[in-house]
Amino acid sequence: MSLNLLLLSSSRVAETAFLQHAVDLIQSHLASCFTDNKDHQNKKLVFIPYAGVTISYDEYFEIARRPFAELGYNLSSIHQYTSPQDAILQADVIIIGGGNTFELVNQLYKHELIPLITEQLKSGKPYIGWSAGSNIAAPTIRTTNDMPIVEPASFNALNLLPFQINPHYLEVTIDGHQGETREQRIREFLEINPGQRVVGIPEGTALQLSGSQLKYVGSQAGVIFSSVTGEATKTFITSTTNINFLLDTI
């Protein structure tokens, strides 16, 4: 199994344009995946807009297409194909955008794409996801921040990594807010699901996996919550932290 994953926390940071904060990272990720192919920019990139709810697939595709076009890549969308399965099989790169994670997984199950995408990515096909698209690289979507606006066939996701992901992670307590903090919600997950790990990736950061090398990318610290050895622990990570141990099966 050879995985090439770029999992972005978000599509924007502060006032930046869509994916502009990640352009260099996207470019280097794709270039590294196609080092033996001089014609790599003619590769077929297929976008999955299923997480979009308050925006049409056409609108979402056009927003996502622009930053890739600026890099010289041609992007198509899965909803433009007669067969979603054929779109995945023909793709050289699979890209899944953010939005509502429950609706994303709902549509992936409806189109019977979960096993196919997993198979294609495990064979080495490059993947780029952000927000919900990053969340589904985990075994399940049970650490998403989203409201369950639909009930998918299962909470099980692509299961590409042996740990849970929490995009848009916030290390903050809001004055006057009486609900749970992000940390409290993750600790609730670990209380009910002992022996697990959850990696929180803040805005502007990412996880990148190339073969057997997992890296945390970003200037802001991320966090690992773990209950593998008993009581839940919390560890901050930076771009210099060796996090390959997260790939070990628990």
From TrEMBL:
Q: Which domain of life is it from?
A: Bacteria
Q: What is its EC number?
A: 3.4.13.21
Q: Which UniProt keywords apply?
A: Dipeptidase, Hydrolase, Protease, Serine protease
Enzyme kind, highest EC tier: hydrolase
Q: Which residues form a coiled coil?
A: none
Keyword Protease, does the record have it?
yes
Single GO MF descriptor: dipeptidase activity
On whether Protease is a keyword of this UniProt record, the answer is yes
The UniProt family comment states:
Belongs to the peptidase S51 family.
Please state what the protein is called. Answer: Dipeptidase PepE
Q: What is the species listed in this Swiss-Prot or TrEMBL entry?
A: Aliikangiella maris
